[in-house]
Amino acid sequence: MADPELTAPGPLGADEALAAWLEHLAHERRLASNTLEAYGRIGRLYLAFLERHRGGPQDLSDLGTVTAAEVRAHLAERRSGDRPLAARSISQTLSAIRAFHRFLDRRCATPAPLLALVRGPRIKPSLPRPVSEDQARGLLQETDADPDAEPWEAARDRAVLTLLYGCGLRISEGLSLTRSDAPLPETLRITGKGGKTRLAPVLPVVREAVDAYLALLPFPLAPADALFRARRGGALGPRHVQAMVQRLRGRLGLPATTTPHALRHSFATHLLGAGADLRSIQELLGHASLSTTQKYTAVDARRLLEAYASAHPRG
């Protein structure tokens, strides 16, 4: 049934329909800001293509007449433009376009049935790429070796990486902590993707690393302020953490797959290797589906075979 707010008065423009969808994702689905930004960018490029292709602005009824050929042409353009997308990004683009049209069908009574004829590219499933336990320890220790960092900055970097590895957090989750969260309790209540909450146990080593950072922090913080601060006192951003890990892996000679998110993969893989069951790891990571967590069993099995091949006399 059509939502009256989206169908009256007058014809709804395509840009207005996109804004309504993003509003729905933000307030009803409670998607993360990065995801909203990506969906908004995909939607704007899609509508701009339709406007060029059809020779004028589009409204809601126009969106219901989209053909499979038009969507394929848009995907082909995204794959061969100035900044061509890889197959995985093309698949994500198609997924976002389908989600937009599902919203128009359910909320605006405007289906686009021909979209079902579009098939995305085949993508070979990728396995998580964790770092080893020795490499993880090396990253944490190397934070003290940065000659350009103040002692409190080195302590902060160690605290952030220890938190990501020790609790299996995403960057956004770690950086969302506030001053009121510290000293860290035995368990943290983390709000992850889609607004889902989970409990993350906090190891003593994680708590100690955060306490050491706070003891050196030169800025006063209010309870609601972000816990981790940048050099000039503002909230620490994810780009700093990514750049910091890039510098550390360069000094340690680690592969390019060594990223902050790889520490989350390592958390899961090392737990699995130590005997933790998949259901527990699923809860700790906040995965909605067990199938997502099952990828780590393939990683663990691969490492076991590699160890066997290297150690067996006839390997």
The quaternary state of the protein chains shown equals: single chain
The SSE order reads HHHHHHHHHEEHHHHHH
As laid out across the biggest beta sheet, the strand order is 1-2
The total beta strand count reads 2
* Biggest sheet architecture: 2 strands, antiparallel
Mean pLDDT: 87
Structural category = mainly alpha
Helix proportion: 55-70%
Alpha-carbon Rg, integer: 23 Å
Ranges where pLDDT stays below 50 over 5 or more residues in a row are none
Please work out how many helical segments DSSP would assign: 15
How far apart are the termini? 64 Å
Residue share in β-strands: under 5%
Give the overall silhouette. globular
Description:
The mean pLDDT is 87. Helix 3 crosses helix 6 (87-108) and helix 5 (68-80) runs antiparallel to helix 6 (87-108). 58% of the residues lie in helices and 3% in strands. It has 15 helices and 2 strands. Strand 1 and strand 2 (197-201) form a beta hairpin. It has helices spanning 4-7, 14-27, 33-54, 60-63, 68-80, 87-108, 133-142, 151-167, 171-175, 204-216, 238-252, 260-273, 278-285, 290-293, 295-311; strands spanning 187-191, 197-201. A two-stranded antiparallel ribbon has the order 1-2. By secondary structure, it is mainly alpha-helical.
